[in-house]
TrEMBL record:
Gene3D superfamilies per record: 3.30.60.30
Swiss-Prot/TrEMBL GO biological process terms: cell differentiation
Organism this protein belongs to: Henosepilachna vigintioctopunctata
Gene Ontology, cellular component aspect: extracellular region
A Pfam family reported for this protein in Swiss-Prot or TrEMBL: Kazal_2
Keyword vocabulary terms for this entry: Disulfide bond, Signal
Domain Kazal-like: 22-74, 75-125, 127-179, 180-227, 232-282, 283-334, 335-387, 388-435, 436-488
Protein name: Kazal-like domain-containing protein
Signal peptide limits: 1-22
Keyword Cell inner membrane: no
CDD domains on file: KAZAL_FS
Amino acid sequence: MIARRLLCVCAVFASMLPDILAVRSSSCPRICTPHGYGDPVCGSDGIIYTNICELKKKTCGRGVTLSDDPGLCQRAQGSKCEHRCGGEKDPVCGTDGRTYLNRCMLEVEVCRVGIGLSHLGSCNNISAHRENCPVDCKQAPVDGPVCGSDGNVYKSTCMMKILTCGQGVVRTNKKYCQTTRHCREACWRNARPTCGSDGKMYANVCKMKSKNCGKHVFEVPLGFCSSQERTAGQGRTCPTSCANEIEKPICGTDGYFYANECELKLLNCGAKRVYPTDLDKCRNKKNKCSKITCGNEFDPVCGTNAQTYDNMCQLSLATCLKGIQFAHVGNCTALKETVPCPKDCKEQMYEEPVCGSDGNVYRSMCHMKKDTCGQLVIAVPPHHCRTTAACNEKCQDEKNYVCGSDNKIYKSECEMKRDNCGKHIYVVPMKRCLSGFLFRGCQKICPTYFDPVCGTDDKTYSNSCFLEMENCRSRSLVTMKNMGSCSEPINEIPKNYLY
């Protein structure tokens, strides 16, 4: 009897095994590429993982998810800093002035000590304002396009140093800049013809982006590639706009929902055979997409149908209904019009910096039009670029002093970035700014990072600076007993940085 029941249980389990394995394989990746899954993440188990893929892979079946509380993976909140990092070489600079092998290695130190990210790329060992800058680049190698730690793309390392002299900009991985993040991407053999904003046809979107490394080229309707015009049947050419067409919803054989037949041809003309079909076949799609609710926020983006949407949510709705993809930030431009480009921008040198739709920051609107002539780059809100993201920021009135790479002390990191709109100014160790100060008595400005030390008075101090202040006040009666808190002493300081 028991044997029979055991056989029944085994039979049921065997029948369920394919479903269990299918669920496991769908949610638990086996291989995680170093570049494909973003920055380190904090798990609900209090451990930092290299990326979201590594979290799913290493905690498969254990119910570990992304933590809603970013403070969970910080030592001050009780974490043991038991983080798992790979050996990927992608250097970043910490606010302690040290270079770390990758972002995950820095996160370990963020947990252990309480420092922060200064900028992407390795640290300069000297103050940025004292770096040597080239005079010209006539003899310099053209090794670009180069992605800088300020988020801008440059033609060469030499040009980067000339244009950012004194700002301490260094080379970073190309994945961190908008027009270079797809440069080395391996493209699948996806035969979906794509028309680029440069008027050329490409085998697919990936090929278009990789072949235009460093340039602002985006997908547009096929009808704009006039030199390789594809017909929509019966000798008719592909439409380039459906602005004046009457809305008459139709369902395509590809499962997408279109406003009218013109829109169907606009998005699929020459790419694949898509025809109108029964509306009932798109009913499920319509019901699913109707659950997406968007606010009134106005931050326009351009879709691959050359139509401007009020915000990214509106574009997501269009992606759900029609398969439209993101082209670029900002309003769509007139693709066929040729605008004359300025040759000189000396009079505009002192204008406000401009954030371009290609992700780069320019000295002025004139400089943007001059440097991106023919690439259809437009000005977009400053929060879309790295060095202008905090230009209009409303900083809190809290005093959390930081030392900037320009050797000036600011009330907070927010005020430092706001006051240096368009410049690559970052946090460096406070001792650089204090080296020229003369303190009287025991007064001293200490950094706020958490690197606990235990004093001989059995009290834990946030870092060695506060202990030195107490030592000064007590006339050398208090000295350091051990690293770490008094309850959790540390015998050896872990070294997670390169230099």
